[in-house]
Structures are given as C-alpha cells and as structure tokens.
Write a structure and sequence with these properties.
alpha/beta; Rossmann fold; 2 domains; six-stranded mixed β-sheet; four-stranded antiparallel β-sheet; 10 helices; 10 strands; 38% helix; globular
Amino acid sequence: MITISDLHVYYGGIHAIRGVSLAVSKGQIVSLIGANGAGKSTTLRSIMTLEKPREGRILYKDKDITLTRTTDLVKDGLVLVPEGRHVFTNLTVEENLILGAYLRKNAQAIAEDMAWVYQLFPRLKERSRQRAGTMSGGEQQMLAVGRALMSSPELLLMDEPSLGLAPLIVKDIFEIIKKINEKGVTILLIEQNAKVALEISDYAYVMETGNIVLEGKGRDLLKDENVKKAYLGA
C-alpha cells in the first residue's frame, strides 16, 4: 500500500532521516519503534508531506506522492493521528469529529462513521457536547483517533497514541487499534511502548539515529535479544 525508498530528510544542517526504506502492505499493522530522536515522527511527517525530503521517493497505492499536497493525501485515504493529540480545545467532541470529515460530501457515510466512532468510543458519545479542552488526556487521545477515522482513512498513521496515558487506558487504545484494523484500515504505528506495539504488529521496523537497523515480524522481534535489551527492559 505504501513504499518508502531511500528517504533523506534534513533540518537545516542536521541529517535527520538517512536513507530510510520501508513498506506497509494493505491490511497490515506495521510498527516503527525506536528511542526519542530516532526520526520516527519525521518519517510520518514526510509521508504526509509536512516535511520535504531532499532525496528518496514515497509511493502510495502505486502513485508517487513525495510532493503531493497534504489535503490531497487525506482525500485519498492517507490520514495522520499526530503526537500530542492536537484536538480543538474550544470545540465540543462532536464538532471535533465533524471537522475530521470536512473533505467528505456523502452525508449518509459521514453519519455512519460517526455512529461507528461512538461505538468504538462510548465515552465520546457520552461527552459529545463537552468541550474537548476539559477532557482527560486519555479522552482527548480517543477523540484524536476518532477525528482521524471521520476522514475515512485507508491507511492510518499513528504517532505515539499511548504517550502519557495510564496503563488501563493504554490497553483500551491498543484494543481499539486492533478493531480499526479488523474493519479494513491499514495502520502504520509509532509507539514507545514497544512490547505492546510488537504484540499487535504483523511487521515492524527498528529505527536508530535516522536509520532502519532491524526489521521483521512483530512476534520475531519480541524474541530478539537486542530488541529485548534496548526496548523491552530485558
């Protein structure tokens, strides 16, 4: 579904992404794990053309999207849940969700997706009239995911969905990620909680200082001694 080939991204004189290549097949959950500053978020931002690569190519559904406008990517089903949630704090839950569908025209399909989001996140339905800024971190993360789903994504990029959340909420978020995938949405996931990410991933990549240093099936990387020592607390 998406293939990144020899991607290089610079911030001024800093070579942030150093020849990254990876692929995500339709229907998969793929994780990108690594320490802070490894270049994971920059990789996702480059896919969404929020950062401009100096070299390399990104193919999505066999089309070169390296220089495509972000809004056109969203129209084509490529959607990002950013790190830090970035919900509209002065708007209600329902208003945030409606904004997620701002590029769509089919009112019936939008209403069906709204019902699906409320089914996935009953708490959002309970608080549909509440301002997003008054909600807890976990509730705001649910809203950020729900808003992205209102764009009707085919490929969902998720940047640290469990960051700063209590363990019980983390468990809920990952159960939701699996349900979203079962609905047919392909997922590329960045996650500091490497153990949980690898447990639900079909495939995974390990990133260090702008490079992919290891890749394999999620369950295989869970058993890898280097991954255990570096990321799983073994």
